[in-house]
Amino acid sequence: MPSYKADLRDARFILHEVFEAPALWASLPTLAERIDADTANAILEEAAKVTGDLLAPLNRSGDEEGAKWIDGQVQTPAGFREAYATYAEGGWVGLSGNPEFGGMGMPKMLAVAFEEMLYAANSSFALYSALSSGACLAIDAHASEELKRRYLPPLYEGRWAGSMCLTEAHAGTDLGIIRTRAEPQADGSYRITGSKIFITGGEQDLTENIIHLVLAKLPDAPAGPRGISLFLVPKVLVGDDGSLGAANAVSCGSIEHKMGIKASSTCVMNFDGARGYLVGELNKGLAAMFTMMNYERLSIGIQGIGCAEASYQAARDYARERLQSRAATGAVAPERVADPIIVHADVRRMLLTMKTLTEAGRAFACYVGQQLDLAKYAEDPAQRERAEALVALLTPVAKAFFTDTGFESCVHGQQVFGGHGYIREWGQEQLVRDVRIAQIYEGTNGIQALDLLGRKVVGNGGAALRLFAEEIRTFAAAHETPHNAALLDAVERLEQLSGWLLEQAKGDLNAIGAASVEYLHLFGYTAYAYMWVRMVAAANRAYSDDAFYAGKRASAAFYFERLLPRVQGLEGSIRAGSASLYSLDAEQF
Amino acid sequence: MPSYKADLRDARFILHEVFEAPALWASLPTLAERIDADTANAILEEAAKVTGDLLAPLNRSGDEEGAKWIDGQVQTPAGFREAYATYAEGGWVGLSGNPEFGGMGMPKMLAVAFEEMLYAANSSFALYSALSSGACLAIDAHASEELKRRYLPPLYEGRWAGSMCLTEAHAGTDLGIIRTRAEPQADGSYRITGSKIFITGGEQDLTENIIHLVLAKLPDAPAGPRGISLFLVPKVLVGDDGSLGAANAVSCGSIEHKMGIKASSTCVMNFDGARGYLVGELNKGLAAMFTMMNYERLSIGIQGIGCAEASYQAARDYARERLQSRAATGAVAPERVADPIIVHADVRRMLLTMKTLTEAGRAFACYVGQQLDLAKYAEDPAQRERAEALVALLTPVAKAFFTDTGFESCVHGQQVFGGHGYIREWGQEQLVRDVRIAQIYEGTNGIQALDLLGRKVVGNGGAALRLFAEEIRTFAAAHETPHNAALLDAVERLEQLSGWLLEQAKGDLNAIGAASVEYLHLFGYTAYAYMWVRMVAAANRAYSDDAFYAGKRASAAFYFERLLPRVQGLEGSIRAGSASLYSLDAEQF
């Protein structure tokens, strides 16, 4: 019953009009040869087709059937194998991969738009691909030339897939205490032994090989996170010529039965002296893995936007058609038994909350993509450095705020359907279940918040935040919109509060943990206010009476009037400090 | 894996110490002969046993197995039949039923504590019983003596069960447009024809008969809600002597596949000229049904508290045992590989949010129960009238705020578990799925909010709210606590805002709908602030250094410092008014 079609109009608006990507690409020599406005539009259109026509129709059936574990093999739901083959053939796995090894080298600003469509259409399916793309990024950044030449091309082609093996039963957030061991062999390889849990796509029947990136410790490694190394462990051993050989000593012990993303296999992976190859330097595995983790964090953030968009489309369509009660101001469809529920204020409140959070998220994902592209392709080292600082600052915001607001949006989208929202066939409840994991995996949103406030704000004395705040002030000074004053107030509030927290953190070791989640939300609402001002500025620049631009201006007003006030409550909670969190003993809970 | 044990200490604290129920009961002649402190404690202990030992163990298996529809029959999951028989034998269905017909006549103040345990242990199971209790209430209040004599005793005994048949496929919130017809017969009965959906327990294999309360329209009835009548339609026809006769023309066409409460059957019920009996007056069926609906609304509100309590218990236990990372202030368990996560500020924030919302909800349920008891048993008509006004005002708050905060709590409880929270065997994700329906059924929380602001506040010019506000001021004047100033501020804010909305509503027909949900939340946080002041006052009265009382005081501080500030953001959104909700056409969404 549910259907999803990418909102190409908004994707183009954000890419071309808000962030003027083609002009940026033309200014960056590497990208200038690869992409222009027409190529980008053609890719977006193809992306809309593959996600809407090929993957969306498998979303409900995938949820009902689920991934199955049969004697160590994983069977994905009906249609997934064929769809993955078509998808891989289209080159989507390597969309922003390194062209030297077969990737398409497309900018992240474009890739984020595609990722949103992918998660919106079918989050379970999307994960198989997302893990491959992330693994490629880590291999490309840290592995030897030989490993790159051997592993990247089939990964970009989608013939092989990737996985990320961090978590162990006793070690999730706290990776310093992992027990998986790596023993050096005479030939320079390692024997990996240990058990990993929650491995997305650790086993599947979509690709002929799976390349696991595994965190493990050498026998003599230092204790804690500084003793962790990263290894590439293929499911099937690969010959010098790239041919597949014997099975490696890797097996899938079971898969989890989960709340959602049921078509994605979540595996217990056992490594029994499996052959592995070091990626990057010994004992610096965590840093190398962070290349993949930061990729996945933004990607999982985008899952939040994608699920919210899918839920919004369905809720909007339902609200236009479902007849129930009369508008408060009098019947708008007197010829029918009741009015469509989109006339009711509270239904509009829910839809506009979804719409304005999702569109701001879409813009912010493109903005972070722009910084990633600048960090990679800008010629000026100072520009690269600035972009890297922004990426570091904004990645935890993107991951956690996209998914927290994505979850809120999907819950609204379910609520718009009334009782039907709770029934499986309508699809809205699946989106709630599927998006829920995005607040948990790739580092819980609580961990993202600690990373933001502890490392990315307090850790550098607020320097990165100042970059962001100054950019916002500069933009506002150059672009008049009705919301500039509110935006500047919000930025001022964020900076004041950050300064206050910098002081608090000096005297109170619990200050950061006590404030972090509310702080991240306050940061997120401020960042979205910036996005809405940029969208209004772009809509004004269009000098058009197209209803699309009027809708953008009206949506911005809703965001500033109805959602941004949430920061007032958040500030109140933050300023209460940590004391009341620690006045109960563990036994008094 | 999950287990639930009722928190008897807190139940007794609220009943005896906060609301001093035994003294109240002693002052009300009808209740004085039925119950005293010892009886109440004995019932609570038995309730804890039946819910913890009998029903909680069937919760996970019930979710996995689900209710099944086989050729028109519903099969409840393994163990439900036997458990229901034991449960009914204990007299729990008729706990607060009319003693004249076999009920136990227990006060609502006590019954709400039991209902919480029931939903906490097994929400699906609870519903079969809750519908019976509600149906009894409507029959007792509105049916003829003959119907009461014939139907109430077996319902109270639990040999038969009840159902509430309102919704039709095209008519959920908007009951005025139902199509089910009732044709008068020569013998005074009616033939009921039509199809109802979303009927909880419409068919099941737990009881030998099911008594449906059905909304239908006579052929010549006025259009809209003023043409609706209420009928009692038994699944099996009942002879004059109470014996079971032929099957009535009622059948279950299918059951829904849902997000949660999977062991509860949600039925499509077809009435094909079924024999029915009028309950109450013709065309006044909606008012009669509201006796049942208001009962169910409070009951479903309590589902929110029950699920939150179950989630809290599991999250607290997990947080005490799960070892991960070190406390920010230095290791508290240096002999172990990491500290229990309850040392971390953000874990404490989640647990304390759950704890303080749940305990305030528990107190507020008891408070509403007290008003229901006063409305029923007080000898002074003025006291009854005042209590009725408070019940009318507070029922939508209880239904919606208990379940919105209950959902928030269950999401926190899942988050505390990290990745394990997403895995079915741990039980936390089931609670999220099960509690989610409580925000939707028995009138969505959006509808509750319209009822509160439109009918219960604006509708009487704020008179009912003044009663509540005056009571709070009187209490605060007589009981000094550290939070009185904050409570009085919150009440002042609520009253000011209500006055402002009364004015807005005169000029803007959309004003109520635009503000209603945020208004209900602001009301709820204010009511919970009152509950926390009452709990602190009771804890102070105890003059005890028992850690329990210290814990109450510390929890109150958390509530006032960290959660109550949310009203600031809510007020900001409310004062923005309705304009931004209506600046987009339906096509611009």
UniProtKB/TrEMBL annotation, chains A, B:
Cofactor: FAD
Keyword Flavoprotein attached: yes
Record's catalysed reaction(s): 3-(methylsulfanyl)propanoyl-CoA + oxidized [electron-transfer flavoprotein] + H(+) = 3-(methylsulfanyl)acryloyl-CoA + reduced [electron-transfer flavoprotein]
Molecular-function annotations in GO: flavin adenine dinucleotide binding; oxidoreductase activity, acting on the CH-CH group of donors
Domain spans labelled Acyl-CoA dehydrogenase/oxidase C-terminal: 283-451
Enzyme Commission designation: 1.3.99.41
Domain Acyl-CoA oxidase/dehydrogenase middle per the UniProt entry, residue ranges: 163-272
Domain spans labelled Acetyl-CoA dehydrogenase-like C-terminal: 468-585
Top-level taxonomic group: Bacteria
Pfam families linked: Acyl-CoA_dh_1, Acyl-CoA_dh_C, Acyl-CoA_dh_M, Acyl-CoA_dh_N
Alphabetically ordered keywords of this record: FAD, Flavoprotein, Oxidoreductase
Domain Acyl-CoA dehydrogenase/oxidase N-terminal per the UniProt entry, residue ranges: 76-158
Biological role stated in the UniProt entry: Involved in the assimilation of dimethylsulphoniopropionate (DMSP), an important compound in the fixation of carbon in marine phytoplankton, by mediating the conversion of 3-(methylthio)propanoyl-CoA (MMPA-CoA) to 3-(methylthio)acryloyl-CoA (MTA-CoA).
Family the entry assigns: Belongs to the acyl-CoA dehydrogenase family.
Name of the protein described by the UniProt record: 3-methylmercaptopropionyl-CoA dehydrogenase
Annotated organism of origin: Pseudomonas saudiphocaensis
